[in-house]
Structures are given as structure tokens and as C-alpha cells.
Structure to design on (205 residues):
């Protein structure tokens, strides 16, 4: 009768509604999975981006320091041999600030000026020029700085090499000795980053 048909239609409608609700839940679960994968990809990309930005900042800092030191060497060319024979510097190897400090009120000889320059640029690579609560916040990660040039400080090509520790391992393609024996850059120097800036300096000019 009519009542039975009405009851059947109601049951059929409830069944269709349940099917629709189940399908919507499945869609929601799929959407959540896709969204989660997207969030993980964005997080990974952000991490890689931060590492790349940090690596770029470190390289820029190292380049600026190398050029600054070479300019000091050019202006103090009578002491080129002092710079050339300094060995590796970094991690406070130069100790405290030399005396005199070669400011306007404390005149220096060429040798004294070279000693102060080397101390100053070591402070720069170590990050001690920028501090927060007394701790260095700038500079490079585990840096070393090396200088080489002509024997006895004569005219020729002088090179400033700066190395530091990168955030990820890469294939080392440089046989440069700067920092290689420190143990700071992995067994195969795979964490070592390196720049070398050459320039010609003639003390007679």
C-alpha cells in the first residue's frame, strides 16, 4: 500500500544519504593526505633554502674579509713578508690585540701594522667583531685563513685563502692545504668550503 511505498522511499533516501556521507569522508581523508605531503615538501624546501642562504652569507663574508686583508697588505707593502709567513690564523691563534693598536694616536712600524692587521682580520673571521652578550655572532664557522706569495715579500701575486665548514657534505675538488690538517672539515674535507683571492702587489709602487 501507500504506507509501505513511503517507508521504502524513506529507507532508500537514508541509504543514499549514508553513501554520500561515506564518500565525503573518503574525499576528506584523501585531501588531508595530499595536504600533509604538500606541507612536508614546503618544510623541506624551507630548510634547503635556509641552508643555501647561510652558505651564501658565509661565502660573501669570506670574500669581503679576503679583499679587506689584501687591501691592507697593499697599503703596508713594506711588511709583505710578515703577512706571507704568518701561517694559518683563526680560532684566536693571534691572541689579544697587539700593542700599539696602530690607531691615529699610536703610530706603528710596518711590522707592527702587519701584526695588528692580522689580529684584526682574525677577529673578523672568528666573528668577534659582532657580539651578543659577549659572544661572537658573526664571522665564519670553524674558519682558517692562509696567505702565500713570493719569497721574501717581493713583487708578485699574493693570495688570501679562507676556509670554513659548510652545512652539507660535497665532493672536495681542491688540494689546497689551508685548514686541511685541522680535522674540522670531515675525513675527506667534504665539509670544507674555500675561497682564494689573488692580487698583484709591488712594494716599489
Amino acid at each position: 500500500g501507500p504506507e509501505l511505498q513511503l517507508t521504502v522511499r524513506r529507507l532508500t533516501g537514508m541509504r543514499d544519504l549514508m553513501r554520500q556521507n561515506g564518500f565525503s569522508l573518503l574525499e576528506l581523508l584523501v585531501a588531508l593526505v595530499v595536504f600533509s605531503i604538500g606541507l612536508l615538501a614546503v618544510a623541506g624546501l624551507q630548510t634547503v633554502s635556509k641552508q643555501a642562504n647561510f652558505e651564501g652569507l658565509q661565502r660573501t663574508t669570506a670574500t669581503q674579509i679576503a679583499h679587506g686583508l689584501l687591501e691592507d697588505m697593499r697599503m703596508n707593502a713594506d711588511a709583505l713578508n710578515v703577512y706571507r709567513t704568518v701561517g694559518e690564523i683563526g680560532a684566536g691563534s693571534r691572541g689579544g690585540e697587539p700593542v700599539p693598536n696602530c690607531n691615529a694616536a699610536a703610530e706603528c712600524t710596518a711590522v707592527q701594522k702587519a701584526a695588528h692587521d692580522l689580529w684584526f682580520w682574525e677577529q673578523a673571521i672568528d666573528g668577534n667583531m659582532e657580539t651578543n652578550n659577549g659572544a661572537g655572532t658573526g664571522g665564519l664557522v670553524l674558519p682558517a685563513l692562509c696567505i702565500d706569495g713570493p719569497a721574501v715579500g717581493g713583487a708578485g701575486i699574493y693570495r688570501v685563502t679562507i676556509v670554513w665548514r659548510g652545512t652539507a657534505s660535497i665532493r672536495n675538488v681542491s688540494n689546497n692545504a689551508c685548514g686541511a690538517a685541522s680535522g674540522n672539515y670531515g675525513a675527506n674535507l667534504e665539509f670544507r668550503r674555500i675561497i682564494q683571492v689573488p692580487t698583484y702587489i709591488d712594494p716599489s709602487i
Summary: The two ends are 117 Å apart (CA to CA). DSSP finds three helices and five strands in the chain.
